[in-house]
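USER: Note each token:
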Amino acid sequence: MKQFRTFLLVTALCLGTLSFAQAQSKVAHINTQELIQAMPEMKTARAELETLTKTYQKDLQAMGTEFQNKVKQYDQEAATKTQEENTKRAQEVQTMEQNIRQFQGTAQQEMQKKEIDLLKPITEKAKTAILKVSRAQGFDYVLDSAQGVTILADGKNLLDDVKKELGI
């Protein structure tokens, strides 16, 4: 009887160990920033954003030059103008300055929106490829190591496999 209890105890321990081993999840990791930077779509998006940035910078410089010229002109002519004209000109200069600041804010918002619009399909494509590769290889979890933190030393790095999936 004592041997039977020992046998049951050993069997229960073995079954528990087996079920614990099967319950462990397979974990991999990938640096999503490195993956996205390597995608050809990202180079195109960067070039488009740079073009848009240069356009806004050129417009802002032109507005700034016009503003400076007007201020300089009004300063030179101030002595020959009436107080009423000088007040009107000061308001005009102030309005120009406000318009430049407003344009700057609008340009910044449009740049952020454009960046989001360009990056969203790229990140979705990367996510889809990561899911496809991780599922094909049987991983339950994929951790992002893009934050500069080593997540697992023994976990599989999926970067090369996902790059192969994307053709890069």
